[in-house]
Amino acid sequence: MRRSFFLLLALASVLRAAEPVDVLVQGAEKLEVRELIAGLGPEARKVTIGPFSFWIGHIGPHRVAVSLTGQALINCTTATVIGIEEFHPTLIVNEGTSGAQAPYLTLHDIIVGQRALDYGNFISPVTAAGQGSSPMAWTPVAQRLRDPVSGQLVPYPEGFAGDPAALAVALRSRNPMGRVFAGVIGSAHEVNLELDRVRWSARNFGMDVEEMESGHVAAVARAYGIRYIAFRVVSDAPYEGVPFNASAARATGLFTLNFLENLPPLAMPMPARTP
Amino acid sequence: MKRLFLFCVFCVAVVARAQTEKVDLLLIAADDALLQPLVQQLGQSKSETHAAWTFWRGTLAGKSVLLARSEGDPLNAVAATTLAIRLHAPRLILSYGSARAHDPALKAGDIVVSESFAAFDGLFSPPSSLGQGIHPLQWQQLPHLLMTAGEKETPAMTFPADAPALSVALALTSPHGRVLRGVLGSANQVNREADRVAWLHTMWHTSTEDGESAHIAGCAALLGVPVLGVRVVDGTAADAADFARRFVEAWR
């Protein structure tokens, strides 16, 4: 009986650290994860936690969890924390669609995130009724994270850098539907189609594309000390008048598959939780 | 015996995934000024840190509580809330603090209790060409598409508050003003342009703005946990913490 008790204890600890994976791959929409789920192979299985689905299998040499996060900060932050706590990934790949913020980009081009940032935060100046609203006068506020060692809140005005090794592999991976560039990805719960504001964001934050998740996921990954990279395909290009094209999601899915095939085996996962 | 063993294995598996050490209440606030008055009153206090987020667990007014620091922004607040729910399965979340008024009828010292929450950071701007300017008072609302069962995203302009907890809070008093029901709005924004504040109030029906309350409510809605928010208009940390403590005493 005593032996059974210790066996149960051991089993509990194993279950608590359930199913570590090499790579947690996230997409906000079903079209963004479809190619990846198909790429997991016949042994893939699905895990549901709350409203979030994860599909576990292998792509290339990697054990992979594909996560359907849903759009924007609330969904993707919740899904990322759950994904990290549940699967203890070594690398997080956040992929999906985006709006071009730079005129050199066109439909199906892919930006690999040299960095990703939250660009939606600001403090406005004080103005009286009748004086209107002037977004160009707003002061951006950087995402902050608390450093558990110093106890200080640290601002990240440039956002969060993509993992250099993953970035290098991505830039050698093929996008079957367009070009591939390194660039800056901006996240906010916004769809900006006023070109003056698009240009202001591009100039002020260096953004090449705008979307709703990667800067937030990058912050969570940084908080946990987990390697991170983001890919965004251009699905709408306001400079060219190209409206949102959902089929662009296929390009980012196929590109991510190619990336995972090219990515060398990763080191053993680090513990996800700090003591 | 074998059957009993398998049953035990199943129970351990469920508990391990759901996590143990449940608490009655998660009390979440932006900073130490709001938290420390309650941390100092905790019985059997323990702190725990997970990645960038710190929690204090103990007893308050006979309830088991977990205190969490949201850092006053949506990302940290949602991450801390998710961790708290996953690790300690609270029966109710209370987000408390101070806020700026969107509703011109509110006065400093009034306490707004959440009838609902609005994360007002969602915007969609109509297309316009270079040189045509930026027209923020013509922007449109972008709803939050919360993930729901069956891998469906459900659009939401507001998130619900727990009705029984709302009743408990509305029965309390404020030392410097009224206790009112309203819509707690949040975004990682400090809006001080009068015309934009009026526009936000019109579009989202927000009573107040703060950095995180509606995002916590959105996370709570995702994971099926009841939530309440209270905000003291232009209030002090001590006033907000005192109201939170009195809520904990009154809540059953």
What does this structure look like?
The complex is a heterodimer of chains A (275) and B (252). Helix content of chain A is 31%, strand content 29%. With 275 residues, chain A is α/β, with parallel strands linked by helices. Chain A has one domain (18-262): Nucleoside phosphorylase domain (Rossmann fold). In chain A, strands 5-14-12-6-15 form a 5-stranded mixed barrel. Chain A has a two-stranded antiparallel ribbon with strand order 7-8. A two-stranded antiparallel sheet of chain A has the order 9-10. In chain A, helix 2 (30-39) runs parallel beside helix 7 (249-262) and helix 3 (72-87) runs parallel beside helix 6. The longest helix of chain A has 16 residues, at 72-87. The model of chain A is unreliable at 1-17 and 269-275 (pLDDT under 50). Chain B has helices at residues 2-18, 32-39, 74-88, 163-170, 194-204, 213-223, 237-250, and strands at 25-29, 43-50, 53-60, 63-69, 92-101, 111-119, 123-124, 140-141, 144-148, 152-156, 159-160, 179-186, 189-190, 208-210, 227-233. In chain B, the strands form 3 sheets. Chain B has a 5-stranded mixed β-barrel with strand order 5-14-12-6-15. In chain B, strands 7-8 form a two-stranded antiparallel ribbon. A two-stranded antiparallel ribbon of chain B has the order 9-10. The longest helix of chain B has 17 residues, at 2-18. Chain B has one domain (21-119, 157-192, 206-250): Nucleoside phosphorylase domain (Rossmann fold, 3-Layer(aba) Sandwich), CATH 3.40.50.1580. Mean pLDDT of chain B is 93; it is low at 1-18. With 252 residues, chain B is α/β, with parallel strands linked by helices. The termini of chain B are far apart. Chains A and B meet through helix 1, helix 3, strand 7, strand 9 and strand 13 of A and helix 1, helix 3, strand 7, strand 9 and strand 13 of B.
